[in-house]
Amino acid sequence: METVVFALLNGLIYGLLLFMLSSGLTLIFSMMGVLNMAHASFYMLGAYFAFTLGQHTGFWFALFLAPICVGAAGACVEKWGLRKVHARGHVAELLFTFGLAYVIEELVKIVWGKFAVAYEIPPELNYSLFELFGSQYPAYRIFMLAVSIAMLAGLWYLLKRTRIGLIIQASLTHPHMVSHLGHNVPRIFMLVFAAGCALAGLAGVIGGNYLVTEPSMAFSIGPIVFVVVVVGGMGSLEGAFIASLLIGFLQTFAISIDSSFAEIFSFAGLSADGDIGRITIASLAPMLPFLLLVLMLMLRPRGLMGEREF
Amino acid sequence: MSAPALQLTDLRKNFGPAKIIEGVSLDIARGERHAIIGPNGAGKSTLFNLISGLFPPSSGTISLAGRQISGLKPHQINRLGLSRSFQVSNIFANMSVRENVRCGVLWSLGYGHSFWRNIGNLKEVQRKTAEVLEKVGLTDKADVPAVLLTYADQRTLEIAITIAGGADVILLDEPTAGMSHSETDRAIKLIEMATEGKTLLIVEHDMGVVFGLSDRISVLVYGEIIATGTPEEIRGNARVREAYLGDETEFAEMSA
Amino acid sequence: MSKGIFGKSSLAALLLSGSVLSAEAEVIKVGYIDPLSGPFGSTGDAGVKHFRYAADEINAAGGMGGMQVEVIAFDNKINPKESLVQLQKAIDQGVRFIAQGNGSSVANALTDAIAKHNKRNPGEEVLFLNYAAVDPALTNKKCNYWHFRFDAHVDMKMAGLTDWLRDQKDIKTAYILAQDYSYGRAFTAAAKSMIEEKRPDIKIVGAELHPIGRVKDFTPYVQKMMSANADVVFTGNWGTDMTLLVKAANASGHTVPYLTFYGGGLGAPTAMGQSAVGLVKQITEFHENIEASEKQMARVDDFEKTNNLDYYYERVFTLMNMLDKAVDAVGSVDVPKVAAELEGMTYETPYGEVTMRADDHQLMQPLYISTFSEGVVRDVENTGFGFKTDITIPAAATETPTTCRMRRPS
Amino acid sequence: MTDYSLDRVPDLAPSVRYKFATRVLPLLLLALILLSIPLFEPSRTWLSLFNAIGINMVFALSYNMLLGQAGMLSFGHAVYFGLGGYAAMHGMNAIENASYDGGLWAAFPMFALPLVGFAGGALAGAVIGWPSCRRAGVPFAMISLGIAELVAAAGFMFISVFGGEEGITGDRMNGVELFGLSLGPLGEVYWFIAFWTFLGVALMYAFTRTPLGKLAQAVRDNPERVQFVGYNPNRVRYLVFIAAGGFAGLAGGMSAVNYEIFTPESLSVIPSGLVLLMAFIGGARYFAGPILGAVVLTYMQSNLSDYSEAWLLYLGLLFIGMILFAPGGLAGLLLSGTTALRQSLSGKGLVRAGAFAISALLSATGVIVLVELAVRHSNGFGEAFEPFSFHLAPDQMMPWAVGLVLAGVGIGSLKVLSRQGGMGS
């Protein structure tokens, strides 16, 4: 019981953080067809911007300002970089963002130094909200929960209730149609890219102090975000949401399972001393998303909710 | 009597709720030149895609020389002797004209996926490639990258790739689309010559081409064949007139 | 870009490197092979600054055996193969002393390659001075004559931590968490056997390995520890894996001691901040609040002022000074003789006497267990927090038996 | 055989002279370079750099079989390099053991070890490629990323195979000697690397000339059409994938002998990313592109880091610059440069190429000055950037302004120039 409740709670938080990251990536992918390899780098920028801004304005302003700054950075990248390679196809765009990830990491090192920065949870939220089975539940997590749900609601409103949202939605299902609509496509692309980056930036603002703000944070979370987007189905926000939670739960549950392969497959005579028998489910937890990714692409390439195979 | 070169039996294709092909049956005899006409959106290209294996049919069967091919993959169907072209030029853009044709030749000569032979030393491949190029008149452009060809030449190359494998049944999807008059005339001559002795199924908008070239014509309207017959029969068919009522120019061409 | 100024100047430098060798015999070159770029670049960068500072000190005092010391840094990107390329580069530039510390995989590659090089190129021997790679095998199963280690290895540090545990009578259960690779496994094995040996009454309620650098949220691990009622946590984690663990522990209100090797590692105090206070203990040969002479404190201050970086690697100074002593005694850069001199050498550091054990070339030095605290005299990384000593473990108490069978060149 | 009745069939094959000039001569040139390098009596530093370059050439070319030839973007090619290398490493230890205990391996020369690597890489390609080659494009890229992460993690978990973090070591001076090479000194290892580099390059070039190689290019250009000339594009991709895995394994085997150590991180996404950079920066569209990329990037990796700690930033900028301005890579630049030179006896093209080169140099210099100043400013211990005995201190305004002006003028004129017509594409 205890384990299940904790796994659910932790999985939810982690899953929602992943969703904040992957929603931006999904938006960008579905509108522009670009799989932004540097997406996690914008997440990192969000954390660093919030750290620096927070020193002057406090956390609460930074919460709004930092994503805007990241969005602006994203817009610049789109306008002066991505747009130029657009004509050369998706692989070129993918490679461009791949290079961009390198550059952003090195720039962050130059600007903010190579070590982690002291980006901490604001004192107003740094207390334990309630106690559950003897373990404290920090208020900041509930705050993260609230922010991600607010973001989800905002995104939903934007997509379902506004004009630009309708255009974006149209492009989700009919990617080639938008250009016929007579809208200013490059401008929409720039806005969408900026918005996607801003979402990643927001995830960085609330994730950076919950986790650690350091130059390698993008590299370490980046691959997981791709897993979410692919498993959920490229271009599907609902899918990304479900996949984020799925991966969040999967990983936290796996950690609570201590059995090793030797125990599980003891009927097959697997020895606990061998390399395989030694492995426990818990130790595999961080690898499970990648296993899921490979299986999903092989068995159901359009993902959980995707409507098209890329 | 030997089996027809191509036989469609009650062929149907749905995309979700949309019924695109609704029960098409058609026999095409060996050596016949058969055209399929019909208004836009009638399902002509879908029919080609079904026959060539790009989509699996929802129901019904397709037989090639008596052998059922529905459900096979495009490359398997091609190996059985059915080759098709595309409405939009579908060539290997970054390769030279000669290499384009050579790709069409390779399988039929039995070189499969071999990686132990130098392609330059395969005399047979060279010879057949040269023959095809000569036949379609692209010899002097053999070393030009395909992407740099003129539109008409790209269409020609499209046909060249299609016939290169020596398939017995050739499907051409609007081979003259977008061509000028003189280019169209040349293209028809080319098609006549290249498909000599073969079975030809052609989708074409240019009625002049259709009536000049084909032995028989089928009219496809909203996924159904409303008439099949010789050019004369089709010209006099009332239902065909009705179907084409909205398209005066085309009908005028047809009657001409 | 590569055709710019770098292309030309590096070409010139490389062409020169061969010919200048003899002319520069007056300089002793110490080759520092560690990551200077990439994710671990920060750690390597800090190391080289310690080495350079120590070299400057020695040079100011007349150099090694009358010769000036120069520290040349080579970036190995913490990649074993790249390290071997850089090793070759260093040797060709006349480097005879190689210093390295980050990554046991690199250390294993280097010690192997240096032994082979010394065998294949007599008269051109190279010494490997290891300042931080703590895989016990380096001075046990894989020991060789050309390798000297100046950091206490896993088993020794674990012996220290479990010594502390011996006196904590109210601790009844322990949990072990480490990264899933050779060091983490060595850590787990050492923890298990030494807890068993020194406190057989303690129950090990969990021993877990997790993939290195892959876990984002350690809360599930912490909650497992809490469910198991662990009174103390042994963790081999370092870098981000440790800071994330500590933050998660603090957030969940898990207030038991976390025994670490690298709690004070560069960058960790900043990242952990308040959350680690009272929680994290470390075992090291140095932290700033150990009592020492004024001269030493002045050195620490000066180092921090000139480098804008915390003084961390006391052992780098030990290493350089012992090398200085050995070269002084030999009077030249005769590497086999210097090695012979280093064997069994004792040296007085600001924190007590240390000995290079001849059996396995492992330095025996006093170790300190300290707790991350508020209200310290000297803080780390300007965080306002610092380490307070809990206990001191004399050099002799850290000695663990070695399986090394040293083969000395005849 | 044929039912065509044509009077004459022209011989379209290129002339013997053309064939020699474009196909045989470059390989002869490579052989000549490889043979003549020892004549300059390079230092061991250079030798070990050449060895690393040779290995990376084969590795990058094998990667380009996927990217450049078959149009498959992989983020996990190091898996095959690594698995091949591990196979070779186990082979090396088997040879050593057999030299004491006897056995089949005793007769296996160390020199031929890359063959074991090839087999290992090809086998891994055959196993992993079977499921992953059923998809192309972005799904294939994502599968390769997932598999690379999984294999890299497995590398740390299965100690008996991969040796854990510290990997597996061996001694190459065992077994039967071939060509009188003991493989002890670096000079002898050079011959070993040179032999296999040449063989690898020649074989991979030959591969592009086979029916399968041509089909791979067809699949890259237009996978849909390939189906309608009788080929299954997935099958073609799969076969190319196996071959690419094999050659990557060959490079892994060369690496095993050269370094005598193999560690799991050589399986990871980092070397996979690096080989992608090599192929792309060199020019994925040209066969020789990855060769150039391997030379430049290996040199940068081993030596640029001596001069700047920001070398990764330069690498990233170079990569992005290539994508933006010269998608043909270094090979493309070189080619258009020589074409410009050849056509420019009139002078105009020469001026243009010169202007391009100068503005590229200007912007590079400007960017370098700025980056180096920023790095020193960020480190914060008052070090100055001193190229060619200039003194540029980060706490003064002047050096920053100089950098900005240089970069601004350079990039500006590059823009103007490229608006008048692209270069190197």
Biggest sheet descriptor of chain A: 2 strands, antiparallel
Shape of chain D: globular
- Unreliable stretches of chain D, pLDDT < 50, 5 or more residues? 1-7
Distance between the termini of chain A: 40 Å
Radius of gyration of chain A: 20 Å
From the spread of the alpha carbons, the general shape of chain A counts as globular
Characterization of the model:
Chain C: InterPro entries: BCAA_transport (IPR051010), Leu-bd (IPR028081), Leu_Ile_Val-bd (IPR000709), Peripla_BP_I (IPR028082). Chain C: Keywords: Amino-acid transport, Signal, Transport. Chain C: It comes from Pseudovibrio ascidiaceicola. Chain C: This is Amino acid/amide ABC transporter substrate-binding protein, HAAT family (TC 3.A.1.4.-). Chain C: Residues 1-25 form the signal peptide. Chain A is built from 13 helices and two strands; from the N terminus they run ααααββααααααααα. Chain A is an all-alpha fold and 310 residues long. Chain A has one domain. Chain A is globular, with a radius of gyration of 20 Å. The model of chain A has no long low-confidence stretch (mean pLDDT 81). With 256 residues, chain B is an alpha/beta fold. The mean pLDDT of chain B is 83. By secondary structure, chain C is of the alpha/beta class. Chain C has helices at residues 5-20, 41-60, 80-92, 104-120, 154-166, 182-198, 219-227, 239-251, 268-272, 294-307, 314-330, 335-342; strands at 27-34, 68-75, 97-100, 127-130, 147-149, 173-179, 203-210, 232-235, 258-260, 280-284, 346-349, 352-357, 362-364, 367-374, 385-393. In chain C, α3 packs across α4 and α7 packs across α8 (239-251). Chain C is globular and about 60 Å long. With 425 residues, chain D is mainly α. The two termini of chain D are 43 Å apart. In chain D, 57% of the residues are buried. Chains in contact: A-C, A-D, B-D, C-D. At the B-D interface, α2, α3, α4 and α5 of B face α8, α9 and α10 of D.
Secondary-structure map with pairings?
The complex is a heterotetramer of chains A (310), B (256), C (410) and D (425).
Chain A: H1 2-32, H2 39-57, H3 59-85, H4 90-112, E1 128-132, E2 135-138, H5 139-161, H6 163-173, H7 185-208, H8 217-232, H9 237-255, H10 261-264, H11 275-278, H12 281-284, H13 288-299
Antiparallel strand pairs in A: 1-2
Helix pairs in contact in A: 1-5, 1-7, 1-8, 1-9, 2-3, 2-4, 2-7, 2-8, 3-7, 5-6, 5-7, 8-9, 8-13
Chain C: H1 5-20, E1 27-34, H2 41-60, E2 68-75, H3 80-92, E3 97-100, H4 104-120, E4 127-130, E5 147-149, H5 154-166, E6 173-179, H6 182-198, E7 203-210, H7 219-227, E8 232-235, H8 239-251, E9 258-260, H9 268-272, E10 280-284, H10 294-307, H11 314-330, H12 335-342, E11 346-349, E12 352-357, E13 362-364, E14 367-374, E15 385-393
Parallel strand pairs in C: 1-2, 1-3, 3-4, 4-5, 6-7, 6-8, 8-9, 9-10
Antiparallel strand pairs in C: 10-14, 11-12, 12-13, 14-15
Chain D: H1 16-36, H2 44-69, H3 78-101, H4 113-132, H5 137-157, H6 159-162, E1 168-169, H7 186-208, H8 211-221, H9 223-227, H10 233-259, E2 261-262, H11 269-282, H12 289-307, H13 311-325, H14 329-343, H15 348-379, H16 397-419
Antiparallel strand pairs in D: 1-2
Helix pairs in contact in D: 1-7, 2-7, 2-10, 2-11, 2-12, 3-4, 3-10, 4-10, 7-10, 8-10, 11-12, 14-15, 15-16
